[in-house]
Amino acid sequence: MPSSVMPTPRREDDHTSPVAISTVGLRKSYGDKTVLDGLDLRIPAGSVFALLGPNGAGKTTAVKILSTLITADGGQAQVAGHDLAAAPDKVRAAIGVTGQFSAVDGLITGEENMLLMADLHHLPRREGRRVAAELLERFDLTGAAKKPASTYSGGMKRRLDIAMTLVGDPRIIFLDEPTTGLDPRARHNMWQIIRELVSDGVTVFLTTQYLEEADELADRIAVLHNGRIAAEGTADELKRIVPGGHVRLRFDDPAAYRSAAEALREVTRDDESLALRIPSDGSQRELRSILDRLDSAGIEADELTMHTPDLDDVFFALTTDRPDQPNQPEEAAR
C-alpha cells in the first residue's frame, strides 16, 4: 500500500443500511451548458463516496447543490434524511463543507479561527473554547494555535480547515478536492484524518482528481462524464470493466508449460519466459476456473500473478469521447 496506515475496510453497498445522501434525476444548467444531466446517487451512512471526473464534469456543482450553496434546476435530493428543497436549514445543520480553497483566515490565529467558527455555530463561550481546544489537539495544531494562520504550511491549513468544519459535529462532510496542492506526506496525513472521521461514523463525500486517493479511501466511486454517471462501483468493480486484465502463469518445467498451454484456452505464450497470459476480468470465479483446469490436468504453476487495469485506465476509458461510444455511457460500464 502507498500508505503505511491500513485502509478502512471497504463496506458493501447494503440497500438496507441508512442512507446519508440520495439523489434522483438531479439537473443543473448554466445557460446552454448542461452541467448535471440526471444525477442519481445513493450513499450509505458511515462510508466514503468519491466522485471522479475531469475538470468541468460537474463535481463541484454537485457538491454545491447538495450543500445548499446553489439550487438544482430539477430532480430530488435528500441529505441526512432531509429534503434538500423543503428543509435546507436542517441540511446545513447536519453537514460540513471543505472546498478546494481553504476557508481559513490567515490574518488571525488558528485558535481564533476555531473560536470564530464556534461563534457561528452559536456555541456558549466555554463550550466553544473546549471544542476548539479538543479539535486543535486532535489535528496536531495545539503548538501552532497562537500563531497567525498565514504562517501555516499547506498541510496545516488543510487540517485547520477540516477542524473548523467539525466544530458543528456534522455527520456528513463534503470534501471538494481536499488535498489539492499538498505534498505527498501532507496528502497521506489527510487520508488518515479522513479514515478516522469515517471510523467515528461520519459520511464523507469526496471529490478528487487524484485517482490513487479514491482507490485508497473510497468504499464506492462514481465517474462523472458529460453531467452523467458513466459508472459506479467499488474500485475493484470499476477496474474490471476495462479490458486488459489478465492472469500470468509462469513455469520452471518446460513440459508443464507446454501442457498448461494445451489445457487452457485463449492463452498468449511467452516461450522464452515459460509464461502464459490468460485474459481475465479479475473475478474469483474466473480465477477458480483457470486453477480447476490446471488441477484437472495435473499441472501446477510455479508463479501466478493477476494484473488488472488501474483507476487511471478506468478514468480515461470512461471520460474519453469516441465516435463508437454509446449515448448512455453507464450502459457500457454495467
Would you write up a description of this structure?
This protein is an alpha/beta fold and 334 residues long. The chain folds into two domains: 19-104 and 152-239, P-loop containing nucleotide triphosphate hydrolases (Rossmann fold, 3-Layer(aba) Sandwich); 246-307, Alpha-Beta Plaits (2-Layer Sandwich), CATH 3.30.70. Helix content is 35%, strand content 24%. It has helices at residues 59-66, 88-94, 110-120, 125-138, 154-165, 184-199, 211-217, 235-239, 254-263, 284-296, 311-319, 329-333, and strands at 19-30, 33-44, 48-52, 74-79, 82-83, 95-98, 172-176, 203-207, 220-225, 228-233, 246-250, 268-270, 275-279, 303-307. The strands form three sheets. A six-stranded mixed β-sheet has the order 6-7-8-3-9-10, with helices on both faces. α5 (154-165) runs parallel beside α6.
Can you summarize this structure?
This protein has twelve helices and 14 strands. It is an alpha/beta fold. The chain has a six-stranded mixed sheet with strand order 6-7-8-3-9-10, sandwiched between helices. A four-stranded antiparallel sheet has the order 2-1-4-5, covered by helices on one side.
What distance lies between the first and last C-alpha atoms, to the nearest angstrom? 28 Å
What shape does the CA trace take?
Answer: elongated
Most strands sheet? 6 strands, mixed
| CATH level-3 fold name of the largest domain | Rossmann fold
Task: Identify the CATH architecture of the largest domain.
Answer: 3-Layer(aba) Sandwich
Structurally, the number of domains stands at 2
How would you classify the helix and strand content by structural class? Answer: alpha/beta
Low-confidence stretches: 1-14, 323-334
Helix content: 25-40%
- The helix/strand order is EEEHEEHEHHHEHEHEEHEHEEHEHH
Oligomer: single chain
Report the radius of gyration as a whole number of Å: 24 Å
Task: Give me the number of helical elements.
Answer: 12
CATH superfamily of the largest domain: P-loop containing nucleotide triphosphate hydrolases
CATH class term of the largest domain: Alpha Beta
Strand order of the largest sheet: 6-7-8-3-9-10
Q: Indicate the mean pLDDT.
A: 86
Number of strands: 14
